[in-house]
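Working notes for the structural subgroup meeting. M.R. asked for a predicted model of this chain before we commit to crystallization trials. I am recording the input and output together here so anyone reviewing the notebook later can reproduce the run.

Input as submitted:
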Amino acid sequence: MISRLNFLLAVSILTLLGFYLAGRFLFLKALLSLAPGLAPYFTAAYGLAALMLTVLVLAKTVIRLAPLSSAAPFRQAGLHTLLAQAALYAGHGLVVLAVYAVLVAQDAGPVSWSWLLAIMLYAAGIAGAINDWRKRAPQAQ
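Returned structure, recorded in token form:
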């Protein structure tokens, strides 16, 4: 149960980080060059759209992985499960560190590296978790 919640939290944070990076470095740069006066309004609308699409991605993820999270007994978790969960937990820790650096310490230097490392850890952990669940799921007969 905790591993599935950890997985869904990682999917949602990874989706939000993707929208944040796309919005900040693609959308906002182009918008500021075209219409700097309308930037706050479009930024707010982009934020709402990103949250709505994140909920949509989570719903699709839960629906697509419903057969994997059935109540049937799984085989014993192995090293791959632990590595995937460790990658997700490390990604959570780096996101907390990056948010702390931005909000409290007002430091923007190493934040980009922690964001990128968190994204890589989330991607590896999500891929590992899906692969592990598919291997351990009971086979249909």
